[in-house]
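job 3f2a | input accepted
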Amino acid sequence: MTLVRSLSLLRSKNFQTRLQRFYGNVKLRNIGILAHIDAGKTTTTERMLFYAGKTRTMGEVHRGNTVTDYLTQERERGITICSSAVAFNWRDHKINLLDTPGHIDFTMEVEQSLHAVDGVVVVLDGTAGVEAQTITVWSQAEKHRLPKLVFVNKMDRPDADFAACVSDLLQKLNTKPICLQIPVKDSDGNLTILDVISQQAIIWNNASLGREYKILPPLEAHLKDLQEKRYILIDELSGIDDELAQVVINSEGFEQVSNELIQQALRRAVAQRKVVPVLLGSAYKNVGVQRVMDAVIDYLPAPNERNQLYDCFGFCGKSF
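job 3f2a | predicted structure (320 res):
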C-alpha cells in the first residue's frame, strides 16, 4: 500500500512539473466567477469573452444566446444551472474561467467547481449588495482558501450604492475590502470610473460596445477625494505588507510610493487572503469589465504560486 501511494505521488509531481514547463508557470489563471442569482455573473462572462476576441458578438441572458448558459432549461429560465468552462487569452495570459450557478438549488455545482480554480471573482449587484447566496458562495470559497476579487456590477442604475456594497463586504462577510475605483455619474447618468492607484479617469465608448475607452486626468472637483483614497489604500496595505511599510518609512511621504510598488504589495496581500480588491462597473452597459480582466492577471495567483503559498494540493484530477 505504501509503495502504491509513493508511486502515485511521484507521478503527480512529474505531471505538475510538465504542466509548469508547458505553461511557463505564471502565464495561467484558473478562476471561478461566483454570485447571487441575477447579479450579472453570466453577462460579465460574456463581455470577457467578447473583449478577449473569443466571440464576435455579445450574448445576452434575456435573449438566450450566451456561451456558458447552453442548456435549453438555462436559456428558457435565464439562469445558470450547470457550471461551464471557457478559456480565453488576455494580456499574454491564458485565463480558464468557470461560470457557476447563482441559484441556491445548485450550490453543489459551485462546490465541485471550486476544487479546480485558484481564485474567484465575486459579482455583487450594486443595487442590492451582499445577498443570501453571496454569503453561501463566499463561505465555500473561504473553505477552499481561495483569493478573491469583487466586482460591483450594475453601477449605472440610479439606486446603485457603491459605499453600501463595500460596507456589506466588511460587515456581512467579515473581510477587508480595498477599493481600487470610485464611481462618478454625470447629469445624464453616464458612468465614469476613477482609478485610485493611477489617479486617472476612465471613460468607456458606448459606440464601440465598450471595446474602447479613454484614460484622462480627473476633473479638479474629484482630485482631493481621489488623492485621499490613494493615501488610505497605501496606509492599509503598509499595515499588512512589510515591504511596502519599509518603503513608506524610508520615503518622505505617500506621494513617493510608486504605482508598481502598490500593485506588488496588493498582489502579495491578495494571495495571502488578507484583503479583497473591489472594482466596479456595469457589464450590461459595457463599462469596467476589461479592468476586472486586468485585475485577474495582476492580483490573482497562478496555479504554482497558490500551491507554493498554501501547499494545499498536488495534482487534482477531479471532474466538475
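job 3f2a | The first strand starts at residue 28 and ends at 35.
job 3f2a | closed
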